[in-house]
Prior knowledge:
Strand order of the largest sheet: 1-2-3-4-5-6-7-10-11-12-13-14-15-16
Shape: globular
Mean pLDDT: 85
Radius of gyration: 20 Å
Largest sheet: 14 strands, antiparallel, barrel
Number of strands: 16
Low-confidence stretches: 21-40
Amino acid sequence: MMxxxxxxxxxxxVRQIVGALLFVLVAAGxxxxxxxxxxxxxxxxxGIGAAQMGMGGAVAASVEGPGSIYxxxxxxxxxxxxxxxxxxYADVMGLVPYTAATGLYRLGDRNTIGAGVLYSGDDVLSEMxxxxxxxxTFSPPPWDRDRRIRAGATVxxxxxxxxxxxxxEGQVTGSxxxxxxxxxxxxxxxxxxxVGLVWRDIVSSLxxxxxxxxxxxxxxxxxxxxxLAVRPRENVILEVDLDAGLHETSRDLIAAxxxxxxxxxxxxxxxxxxxxxxxxxxxxxxxxxxxxxAGRTDIxxxxxxxxxxxxxxLRLSLGFRM
Length: 322
């Protein structure tokens, strides 16, 4: 009877793993039906969050908390506090301001929901993305009874507007409306390591309405992230991610990053991203963070400085956990 019970638990764990992985592949067949513009200029990925970008964006397997809604929705389920929120700001190349706000709320021990908004640009071209996400914690796998499998998904609604600045007669104006779907999992593996898998824009659609070109549709090119995070010590994270673009114009990137926690109140970070094939993208990053407690609220301030492909960029994040 004991052996039968153990086999039953193992069978359930295997089914949960398979189900979590399939969660990433849902609706994949529809991805091929979308037409791509070939130029991913709209809603380009510049990364959100000072803590994550301080590690060069290598966080697919280790990210937790509100920022997970952007990087890997499975990480929402790893939040240790019932509620949390983060506000981010970056001025890319001194030209394009990016502002983001994300939050999460835990529903019991296994389920977490999250929401967020990303806004960038000005009257020439502005873009806004609304995000709603859900994540669930599954039972531990047979090879690691102390850590759990997590899976999540993010639904995105995108809106854009251009040509609203003062100009001469004949100004081209327009707007766009669309959606996207991300999904991801994190799975513990032997060696105190974690594997993260994220498929961004499994399906996406963006419908433009231009005063010059009329109405037309395209998609935001998707990509797949595969990350491996290890913790050689309790206060140290090392991660390497592969970001594989799914369109001929997309870049294949490698990102590597590290975070070292100091006395549970501070952190230092470093990262590096580069393009696999010969190209222009090579980016370095450093970052730091500090935590303070005010009553029942933990307040975190994170900074990151990036130089390379997108010129020198300072990123700031202010987070709250309750």
